[in-house]
Amino acid sequence: MALSVSAPTSSSLLPASFQVGRWRSSARSAKPGAFSLRRPVLAARVAAGGNAPSSSVGEVVTEFDAVVSFSEIVPDTVVFDDFEKFAPTAATVSSSLLLGIAGLPDTKFKSAIDTALADGECNTLEKPEDRMSCFLTKALANVGAEMAHLVPGRVSTEIDARLAYDTQGIIQRVHELLKLYNDHDVSSERLLFKIPATWQGIEASRLLESEGIQTHLTFVYSFAQAAAAAQAGASVVQIFVGRVRDWARTHSGDPEIDEALRKGEDVGLALVKKVYAYIHKNGYKTKLMAAAIRNKQDVFSLLGIDYIIAPLKILQSLEESVTDTDVKYGYVPRLTPLLGKTYNFTEEELVKWDQLSLAAAMGPAAEELLASGLEGYVNQARRVEELFGKIWPPPNV
């Protein structure tokens, strides 16, 4: 994810001490990053008991104002320069972000990468692949620490997708990153670790959460993955609504998707609704994030979910659309905790998930989309390491 825009009075991306008020950046130039943004225009209104937006005399209410009174919005971009419009409160650090930083001619985050490439511990490693992996880890932590000093909320850090099927490898990498962050005076309360939702990743999440380390599970394309992640205690689960829908348009034979189609439902939105109901029916702490949003109607259909990652063009359209209380969408939450009381699950869906049951229940859509997502992340990490190999050692360090 990249930027985030929001107005709810509390957020799992914001530590409790930062959940009130608005942080402003003095920056004006483009800053690469995955920021979470908070916009409290309607927060007081919602806290006072209001559900739909209402206008006082002379107040302009946009569709964006209405949307952020129900869900936290995360703009899907790597570089964002309109800090006056969307003040950042949290960030995500990834291989794609490092590539973006490396491609910018002048950014303060460049020095964070140069410092990583000059790290003495990494330089002592004999194997080039070990050295580059060490540089990548240091660079993620260095840039993440810079972000943590710029924003009051949490920083989510990508875990190398090459570790996706290695539980202990994931845990070791998280501990390495956590130590590096602590060395930069960034506490674990300020951090999330973004882990692929393989069974090994879900198991790593369970063990890390038991230590008080917060995890963010990504590449979730099936109910089984999400349910297993919630049982593991993951802090955030990210479902790719549009990617599931795209798969269904050109494929068939996935039982979960076929069932939604028989009911006349949108397969991506149906998956989110089912997972949301499951989380609230069972009282899990997990927050739900919807990604791969394709249009404004997706946003309206997801109101009430914890987080929505949306492209900037959709957010700009919402911002430019002035509305009132009598609009056709009604601006009411489509997802509420009451959904958990009305949703009926089968015995198979309420099991205690393990590796075998997860593998049997995922279906071809989740299997193919998970493999594709991991491949993309692995390629990004390799591109970063190849770039580091070309510029190492950095000049003047």
UniProtKB/TrEMBL annotation:
<protein>
    <recommendedName>
        <fullName>transaldolase</fullName>
        <ecNumber>2.2.1.2</ecNumber>
    </recommendedName>
</protein>
<keyword id="KW-0963">Cytoplasm</keyword>
<comment type="similarity">
    <text>Belongs to the transaldolase family. Type 1 subfamily.</text>
</comment>
<dbReference type="GO" id="GO:0006098">
    <property type="term" value="P:pentose-phosphate shunt"/>
</dbReference>
<dbReference type="GO" id="GO:0005975">
    <property type="term" value="P:carbohydrate metabolic process"/>
</dbReference>
<dbReference type="Pfam" id="PF00923">
    <property type="entry name" value="TAL_FSA"/>
</dbReference>
<comment type="pathway">
    <text>Carbohydrate degradation; pentose phosphate pathway; D-glyceraldehyde 3-phosphate and beta-D-fructose 6-phosphate from D-ribose 5-phosphate and D-xylulose 5-phosphate (non-oxidative stage): step 2/3.</text>
</comment>
<keyword id="KW-0704">Schiff base</keyword>
<dbReference type="GO" id="GO:0004801">
    <property type="term" value="F:transaldolase activity"/>
</dbReference>
<dbReference type="InterPro" id="IPR013785">
    <property type="entry name" value="Aldolase_TIM"/>
</dbReference>
<dbReference type="InterPro" id="IPR001585">
    <property type="entry name" value="TAL/FSA"/>
</dbReference>
<dbReference type="GO" id="GO:0005737">
    <property type="term" value="C:cytoplasm"/>
</dbReference>
<keyword id="KW-0570">Pentose shunt</keyword>
<dbReference type="InterPro" id="IPR004730">
    <property type="entry name" value="Transaldolase_1"/>
</dbReference>
